[in-house]
Amino acid sequence: MPNDQHRQSSPQFKSGPLITSAAFFGAGAVLLIAGFAIGGTHVFQALRRWVDEMEVSPSDRAKITYAQAKAAAAAGAEAWQKAPANANGRLHPATRRPRPADSDLRLSSHAPRRRSSS
Prior knowledge:
mainly alpha
């Protein structure tokens, strides 16, 4: 067992490949940051030009849409509160849907029919 006595407890690394890989990693990180900066600046400028060319700005469009939704909600609430009701508190018969006739309740021609007793 003489080979067991010469073994070391940790692996041996050469410094050259580690330094090279660290340099490439650092260069890649710098290129990544530069790419994000250039791409982000371009996208930001394009979006700014697009917004400047709009006839109505996004904030004004949001205000208009909010005012429309608010008016529609108020009109719906008023119509609901002022719905015609009879003495029982139910909707006026003209506003109810008609009930289906008994003949309309059959689902298919295979529905069981009553037999007449003769």
